[in-house]
Structure formats: structure tokens, C-alpha cells
Design a protein that fits this description.
The complex is a heterodimer of chains A (281) and B (368). Chain A has 281 residues and is of the alpha/beta class. Chain A contains eight helices and 15 strands. The chains are: A alpha/beta (281), B alpha+beta (368).
Chain lengths: 281, 368
């Protein structure tokens, strides 16, 4: 019988300092057999461990269309994330997963896509952004892609070089913003909170568009409200949630919102599913 | 299997026989908790090396549940060793001795399928191998209640004091010093065959049925479970004033969750000495303030009453909806163990009242 709590061992191939306290790891499996059999879908998450410190839950931030390595992106906040952040290239970490559901990207074919993220919530979107961009490049199955992304300050933006790439990409709009006071003299983006910039400055049309939102609970709430004022319907809005988790397996009893376990039933939820939940997230 | 009788005075010998058959035997026994003149002996399920001092059939319930013999309080999941840039993982050797638990009350036995629903692969295909191996190797000998105390409320959650639904082997006292024995499973029959030398005759089904009902009338805490689920299903009631009013006194100590036979929450941490360590799973409680605290500082259950609301909903909705199993089994341990007399049946009564009188509740905000 296999041990569901035992992680795979992975080597850190590359470390990128994205922002103060925020790092990206490029990860490869140490066991070739595991590497061969491992697959995941966009939107799924995993448990990452610095041995001796514990486990933390992050999404898989890379796209399943790019299986050369896996990526995660995290902020050093607690015991385990600080221990992870202290590791460097060549070090070993543990990974359990993939867990949870995925973004229903086949339902979005033929549509325009609007991604809206705040702060450290871009990594979950980045997996699906590259996933749909790679598929669009192959056969044009998605239309225009817009990305609205904001952080507290210029420095706190993650994936800065990719923001630049998306900005220059055809059939793609990149809208970046920082909170008031977060802009320096060289800032060339918007200033304002994400929901406000989305509604007042960018004001996208809802026609044939799916909006994919990720951020802290308060941002999700205000962004959904802004989208509704822009004419988006519930079925055009989707998000990914993260609650504190330990097992990721529906057993440790932590991540539930009412009877809905984020680890099993989520992390991806449509707006109408979210509206039907008790408001405790 | 045919039924049999065994004398209550022979239960110590029954334990001896099972121990001699190389089984690990767990049964209720008194355990002193303090030294000195204020000794309080409490009834605990303990591993027995012989029949001496057992308390099978005495008292109402043990202080601890049988949960800890299936879902360990503290359990290493694997060992690791840091070797420079590499890490080596090795499995931990666990013993899974064949175990017989004697004297399990019917309410508590109802928690076995509930825990199984969480930890077996019936739950999203993820099987906790430690739990399922222990369950597989454990035989439950249940014991009808013929008495009840003020905290018992099994009949309010559809369990009878003589229920043998979740038994391998079931005992019911007949009132004359003898016990009616009935095997319900093959594992139960195997235990019965070990005890056979102690059997004094055939069982008495008619008398057993009669004695099985004796406790029903002694249960005074009667609540109506029927309207609770539908009321909890109504999202508007999630913000009902009741949650804060009744939950205000909760200290968040978690005693109810540790004593509850169906509470299953756990934490996973690393425990080290130098470069070697174990990843360990151990009991946690949804009543603790850090339980759902996010790294960002956001906490979805930021007030104690919300944490108790989650506990109540887990027992009467989440267990049913998510795990298709029974949450509250009416044993009353959470009532006996609460330092501030928070009472789950008070919530039950209030929900039933609100469900029956929705308009009256709005008109009378001072309802207590």
C-alpha cells in the first residue's frame, strides 16, 4: 500500500528572486520513473516541503505544455516558506501532488480571456495563461488575451520579465497597476487597486469573454462586483481559492467552506459555485 | 453463529484467554490521574496484559475514545535524513498487532464507519494506509448500555443503546449476572471461539431484546434531529444570531474535539534531531485559532463562535454531505468534557425551535 503522505524528491534547478521575499523555483524530479509518470493539469496545486520544517501549499505555477521542469512561486512568510527560501540550486525539496481540480480550459475555446490577479496570486494564473497561450499559438483556439495584474508596489510585481513579454505579444493586452504610493519615477503602468483599474481604466467588454480571477478574498469579492457592473454574467467568471491546508487529501479538516473541501472540490470555482457557498473564505 | 451466554464475573478470564491467544486486548480500566489524597480515578480504554482490574460494562463511557487505537494521536509517516544537498526518505516500521477492543458502547461503535469514510479510499480515492491497516486488524466487541447519564443522547441521533450494527461481537447483560453474546461478523466469531470455554449455555434472545431497551427510558436528553440538516442547508442561517450568542462562551480549548469519536482533524509537522527526523501526523482541532489562519494573516474563521459553528456543521451537515457518514453519535463526551458547559444539544434544540418558528424568531430578538 502506498503512503499518501510521502513526497517525491525534487532538485532545485534554478532560483529566481521575483520580488522582495518572493522566489520562483524550477524543479526536476530526482527519480526518472516518477518524472516519466508525473502529469498535472493547469490549476492544480501541490504540497512543497523543506525537510525538517514542514509542508506548504502552492499551486503549480508552470504550464502542463512545458514539462521540462515544474515551477512554484512563493513568499517567505512562515517557518517552512522561509526554510524553502533559504535553499539554493542543487538542494532537495519534497513535493506531493498534484491535487485538486483544474481550470476548464476546453470550455473557453473560441472565446476571449481576461485574467485578473493581485500580488502573489499571479502564479496560479500564470500556469493557465501560458497553457492557453501555447495552445493559441498551436491552432488559434483562443481569442484575445488580456491580463490585469497589480501589486502593492512596483517591486512587489512578480514575473516582471514575463509581464514585459506579454506586453509585447500580439493579440494580447497587458494592464499592470500598483497601489497608490507604490509607483516610482520610472513606473509606466496604472496606479490604483486592481478592481478599480479594471472597471474605470481598462473597462473590458463582456462579449464572448471569460474572466479568470485570483487574489486575496477581498480582491475576489470587489473584482466580481466590478465585473458584474461591466456586464459580465456569473457564468463568465471563475476563480481559484486557497485555504490553509495540511494534507491536500480531504482528510485533515482545514480547508473546508461548509461542506466544500477546497483541496478536493477546488481550488478552481466558478462564480456561481462560490455564490452558493456559505460566505466563510 | 448460535448465541451464547457468558457470566459477567468471567470477563476477566475472557481477557486472559484473548491475551493468551496473542491478541492485543484493549478494555476499560480505572486509571488514577493524580497522586495524593485527591486521587480521581477515571475510566480509560487501555491495553490489558491480563483481566485484572478491567471495568467492562461499568460506568457509562470511558474518558478516552477508541479513536486513538485506529487514528493515532501521534504517528510518524516516514523518516528523513538530510545528507548535504540530498535527502533520504525511509519508511517507518509500524506494528499492527491483531487487536480486540472490549466493552465498546454502541454509540461509539457508530463512529467506526464515520472515521473509515474519511480515511479510506472512499474519500476521493486517497487511502490513509496507517488507519486502514489498523482498522482491518481490529475486532470490536460492543456492549449494550443498560444505564445512561444526564449527557447521553444517542437516541436523538438515531442510535439505540443496544445497537449492534457496527459490532463484530455484541454483549448484552441479562440482569442476572449473565451476558447474552451474539457474533455479527466472521471476526466476531473468531473471538467467540476463543471465549467458548467460558460459555455457560445458549443465549436468550427474548430477554436480550427486553434488556436492550432498559436504557432508553433513562435517557433524558431528548432532541429532534430531523429539522437540523435542512436548516443548516439554508445559507442564510449561516449568519443567524444564534451562532454568536451560544458560542460566545467557548474558550477554544479543543477538549470536545479530542474527546469526540468522529473528530478527525490532524496536523502534519516535521520533528528533528540534528539532520534526522520524522514527518509526523497528529491530532489537531478546528477549535484552535491558528487552525485556518492563512500566511497572509487572513483567517476565514476569525472568531471563536465561527470555529464552533464549523464544529456543529461538521457533525450535522459536513459529515453527511461530504463523507456520507454520521457526524454526531450522541455519546455526550463533548458535554461532559467542556469546561464552560457548552452544550451541543442546546444548539440542536435551538435549531429545531428556529426551524419550527421562523417568523417568531424574527419578532422576538430576545429569545433565549
Amino acid at each position: 500500500m502506498s503512503n499518501i503522505y510521502q513526497p517525491h524528491l525534487m532538485t532545485i534547478k534554478n532560483v529566481i528572486q521575483e520580488a522582495p521575499d518572493i522566489k520562483t523555483f524550477h524543479l526536476v524530479f530526482q527519480d526518472d520513473k516518477v518524472a516519466e509518470n508525473f502529469s498535472f493539469e493547469t490549476g492544480q496545486f501541490a504540497e512543497y516541503s523543506a525537510f525538517g520544517y514542514g509542508e506548504s501549499t502552492f499551486c503549480i505555477a508552470s504550464s502542463p505544455t512545458r514539462m521540462d521542469h515544474l515551477e512554484c512561486c512563493f513568499r517567505a512568510t512562515g517557518k517552512n516558506t522561509n526554510a524553502l527560501a533559504a535553499l539554493s540550486e542543487g538542494d532537495t525539496i519534497g513535493l506531493r501532488g498534484p491535487y485538486g481540480n483544474r481550470f476548464p480550459i476546453e470550455e473557453w475555446e473560441g472565446k476571449d480571456l481576461l485574467f485578473i490577479g493581485g500580488g502573489i496570486a499571479l502564479p496560479p494564473l500564470r500556469s493557465v495563461i501560458w497553457n492557453v497561450m501555447d495552445l493559441r499559438e498551436q491552432d488559434g483556439r483562443y481569442g484575445h488575451i488580456s491580463i490585469v495584474y497589480g501589486a502593492r508596489t512596483q517591486n512587489d510585481l512578480v514575473y516582471k520579465r514575463e509581464i514585459q513579454m506579454w506586453d509585447e505579444m500580439d493579440n494580447t493586452t497587458m494592464v499592470k497597476t500598483v497601489d497608490p504610493g507604490g509607483d516610482g519615477p520610472d513606473w509606466d503602468g496604472h496606479v490604483g487597486f486592481v478592481p478599480h483599474v479594471l472597471e474605470k481604466d481598462f473597462a473590458p467588454k463582456p462579449d464572448n469573454t471569460i474572466a479568470i480571477v485570483c487574489g486575496p478574498p477581498i480582491m475576489i469579492k470587489f473584482t466580481f462586483e466590478a465585473l458584474e457592473r461591466l456586464g459580465f454574467k456569473q457564468e463568465q467568471m471563475i476563480t481559484t481559492l486557497e485555504n490553509r491546508m495540511k494534507c491536500g487529501l480531504g482528510k485533515c479538516g482545514r480547508c473546508n467552506i461548509g461542506s466544500t473541501y477546497v483541496c478536493i472540490d477546488g481550488p478552481v470555482f466558478k462564480a456561481e459555485q462560490l455564490a452558493a457557498l456559505p460566505q466563510e473564505f | 453463529m448460535k448465541t451464547a451466554t457468558i457470566q459477567k464475573s468471567d470477563l476477566g478470564k475472557a481477557i486472559d484467554l484473548l491475551v493468551q491467544a496473542d491478541l492485543r486486548v484493549v478494555a476499560p480500566r480505572l486509571q488514577p490521574t493524580l497522586d495524593g489524597p485527591d486521587d480521581i480515578d477515571i475510566l480509560m480504554f487501555q491495553e490489558m496484559k491480563s483481566g485484572e482490574g478491567h471495568q467492562i460494562g461499568e460506568g457509562i463511557l470511558t474518558h478516552n475514545g477508541i479513536k486513538e487505537f485506529l487514528f493515532a494521536k501521534h504517528e510518524p509517516l516516514f523518516a528523513y535524513e538530510l545528507k548535504g544537498k540530498k535527502v533520504e526518505i525511509t519508511p517507518v516500521h509500524h506494528e499492527y498487532p491483531r487487536t480486540v477492543i472490549l466493552g465498546v458502547r454502541p454509540c461509539e461503535a457508530a463512529s467506526i464507519p464515520s472515521l473509515e469514510a474519511v480515511f479510506s479510499n472512499a474519500n476521493a480515492g486517497f487511502e490513509d494506509p496507517f488507519f486502514t491497516k489498523r482498522l482491518e486488524r481490529t475486532t470490536f466487541v460492543t456492549y449494550s448500555c443498560t444505564d445512561a447519564d444526564a449527557s447521553c443522547f444517542c437516541t436523538s441521533v438515531d442510535i439505540q443503546p443496544d445497537d449492534s450494527t457496527n459490532s463484530d461481537l455484541h454483549f448484552t447483560e441479562l440482569g442476572d449476572g449473565s451476558i447474552h453474546v451474539e457474533a455479527k461478523t466472521q471476526a466476531g466469531e473468531a473471538v467467540a471461539s476463543i471465549l467458548e470455554p467460558l460459555f455457560t449455555g445458549e443465549g436468550d434472545q427474548a430477554k436480550r431484546e427486553k434488556m436492550g431497551k432498559v436504557a432508553v427510558e433513562k435517557i433524558t436528553r431528548l432532541r429532534d434531529k430531523a429539522p437540523i440538516r435542512a436548516w443548516l442547508d439554508e445559507n442564510a442561517n449561516f449568519d443567524d444570531e444564534m451562532w454568536q450568542r451560544l458560542g460566545e462562551k467557548c474558550l477554544g480549548c479543543g477538549a470536545c474535539t479530542f474527546e469526540c469519536p468522529t473528530c478527525h482533524c490532524f496536523d502534519i509537522v516535521d520533528e528533528n534531531k540534528g539532520t534526522k527526523g520524522y514527518r509526523v501526523k497528529f491530532w489537531d482541532s478546528c477549535q484552535f485559532d491558528h487552525f485556518t489562519l492563512h500566511a497572509s494573516g487572513h483567517n476565514p474563521r476569525d472568531w471563536q463562535y465561527k470555529r464552533y459553528r464549523n464544529r456543529f456543521m461538521c457533525k450535522f451537515k459536513i459529515y453527511e454531505e461530504t463523507f456520507e457518514a454520521q457526524g454526531c453519535i450522541g455519546c455526550g463526551r463533548c458535554i461532559r468534557g467542556c469546561p464552560v458547559n457548552l452544550d451541543i444539544t442546546e444548539y440542536m434544540a435551538e435549531v429545531a425551535h428556529k426551524a419550527a418558528n421562523p417568523a417568531a424568531m424574527q419578532a422576538d430578538p430576545d429569545f433565549e
